[in-house]
TrEMBL record:
Keyword Transcription: no
Lineage: Bacteria, Pseudomonadati, Pseudomonadota, Alphaproteobacteria, Acetobacterales
Protein name: Type II secretion system protein
Biased composition (Low complexity): 1-14
Record region (Disordered): 1-35
Pfam families xref list: N_methyl (PF07963)
Keywords: Membrane, Transmembrane, Transmembrane helix
Source organism per UniProt: Acetobacter garciniae
Chain ranges passing through the membrane: 45-65
Amino acid sequence: MTAQPRPARACPRPRAGPPTGPGARLAAGPGAGHGAAREAAQQGFTLIEVLVAFVIVIMAFSVVYRGMVDGVAASQVAIRAQQAISRAQSHLAAVGHGMRVGVLEQDGDDGSGFHWHVRILPEQTEQTALGGLGLYRVEVSESWPDPQTATGRRMLVLHTRRLGPAGEAP
């Protein structure tokens, strides 16, 4: 019998050692033979992690949004309060210059939802009137609508004292 050459193999022999290549997996520890089940469980955890991250991002955005809304609301209140201060100071400046100093109570609308009220009462003092003048307590209040408050309105009050003709009874 004559020796015939062996045909070449289509697949090379497997090498000894750990597998290599793009589809290779390293098996280590117990349960290493359950690669498909492990991969499915890992994909499930990845989905849960993505959902948790998504919820955290939504919560962070809602906190930032709420902060921005509160900031805008606070700036609007500050703007309206500044307008009320300006209007109340104008009414206060009118006392003694166009509005008599004496026992008085007046109110009216200032426009843009503002309402003013002026009250002038004699100040109780131990001193006698000097030169026919008496001391009066002047109170000017300015109010405006604000749905954020329990009463639905905000109010600002300015106080001062003015000299006026003495002897007027309340």
